[in-house]
Amino acid sequence: MPVQTRKNRRGRYERYVNGRHLNLDDLKQEAQHLGNQYLSKENIPEYPHPEFHVAHLKHDTDQWGLRGIRRDEGFRFPHNSSRDPHRGILLWWSLAVSPDEVKAAETRLLQQKFSNLTEDQAAMHPNFLYKFTTSPAFSEKSRLGSYRFTFPLEEVLEAYRLQFCSGDQPVMRVYETVLYKQEVQHTVLVHSPANQELFSKYPLLTDDPNAVCVYKDGRFIWRPYAISETHGCKLICRPEKNQMDVQMSLTMFYIWDNVAIAPHVDKQVLDFDADQLRKNLKFCDPGEVPIGTFESLEDAENQVKSLWPDCDSPLEKECSLEQRFMDLRLVLVGRTGSGKSSSGNIILGRDAFSAGGAAAENTQCCLQTKKVFNWEVTIVDTPGLSETMERQSEILKCIDMLASGPHAFLLVIKVGTLTDEEQDTVRQMEEIFGKNVWRHTIVVLTHDDQPETDVQILDRTKTELKKILPCRVEDRCYVLNNKQQVWDLLDKVAAENNVYSVKDRVIRVPDLRLVLVGRTGSGKSSSGNIILRKDAFITCRAAASPSSGNAQCCLQTKKVFK
Q1: Quick check: 170 and 161 in contact, CB under 8 A?
Q2: What is the fold of 326-504?
């Protein structure tokens, strides 16, 4: 079927081909007479061609759509101003590719390219694929509105099966390919077996290894044309190392594609429980060329609170894939003897901090960095919390070691009966960091050998913490005894991506901040001791030896002159 033209509901003309998901070569051939400037681009920098196995769908909307979804407790298509006779009775979702699915696609690419790749090489390979995922198909931003619902694919298909298919499996068909200025959209039609005749002209979606999109084993397998909106990176293969790398290149614009999933709802509602809707809702910033209406995060929070008044959970903000693969900056806080340093060692997987050592007594901050899973994790271990202004000021100076600010404060509490000391800890946290600190706080529980399981410890301690911790911090509570628990904590920090701002501080100390740099043996530590007029730094310290592999920074402060 040739390329046709129609006016969409925004009043703009779009090109489309019915009943086919065109591969890139076929699309170029079909559209060569259209004069599309992006399709005709040549000499595009080498880029990866991954295969994503996608298990989530997303649906973006504005405040009016949100109100309708809450009222109906589900999704419907509100109006139809397109010449397509089916668009007004189809519900539109898009594939939502998760960080885990990007990592899995990256591993498949490496395995396809390097036949002798080992499991260890694949696991330790630096992440590169996310650097190419810059098209709106992967964006944390939205063009349609401030609100995004992201549901597991299985939940959507199961709800559709029960509500529209009388319990039978839905039918999937190749609906169309739509060509916009730079975007190509492939649509999969989902309908009830009872409507076979209505949609019989559209081919069934089959497990074709060359198809752009297929459905298999509970996931959509998507093989995109291109995953970048702006091609400013070039893929470099290093077969001698079994590695793929990214190199900056001349920026070029090219087409990008995405997949839409369109269940046939026939002006009815695809129902979901109100709690399900709220749980799967996040806030989105506007993307480039927005076509919906948008609100500020504060207004969106108020809107959501009015629609779900019984829900105390904050409205989370959608974060990008880049943020999910980013560096994480953490600060350990807590009383002396709470297990801060040991917790830092567990997260980094090595003896990075001296448990019960100098950091507790000498007001010394220690900074350590290591790659953990997909993240470059930097942790600052602070002195134990104290009532003295001097110690509190020192703790704040530790925060300055993280120039961009920490993503999270890990408040380390030793399990046991909560005492007045723990209540003092809460008060001191607010005195030092401000009341907004709780938005960035995660509780890490430590304990001596106990017969209780981790789940039992969490359940019991959460009840106690709820009495003293504000902002439902007790719901962000972890016991770190294995890699899975460390992963869960880091994944939580990365997903929230909330950076603590120095503007939130209560204590403000006018100070001078100096950094000593130089070769080993140049006299850096001695110079610092002269400035502070005390033996603050140990000269010729073992930690400074290049052979030690210890990336430890030392911070010392003292009032000098004024």
Answers
A1: yes
A2: Rossmann fold (3.40.50)
Average pLDDT over the chain, rounded to an integer: 86
Taking 70 as the pLDDT cut, the residues of the chain under it are 1, 78-88, 356-363, 374, 387, 403, 417-420, 450-451, 502-511, 540-552, 559-562
Domain ranges for the chain = 4-307, 326-504, 512-562
Find, among 236, 316, 310, 240, the residue nearest to 280 by Cα.
316
Burial (Cβ within 10 Å: 0-12, 13-18, ≥19) of residue 276: middle
Task: Kindly calculate the radius of gyration of the chain based on its CA atoms and give it in whole angstroms.
Answer: 27
Whether the pTM exceeds 0.90: the reply is: no
For residue 448, the model assigns a pLDDT of 76
Handedness of CA 462, 465, 470, 473 (dihedral sign): negative
- Residues 384-401: tens digit of each pLDDT: 887 677 777 778 777 877
Helix axes 483-496, 340-348, angle to 10 degrees: 90
User: How many residues in the chain?
Assistant: 562
- Residues with Cβ within 8 Å of 228's Cβ and at least 6 positions away in sequence, in order, are 47, 132, 133, 134, 135, 254, 256
Give dist(CA 261, CA 190) in Å, integer. Answer: 7
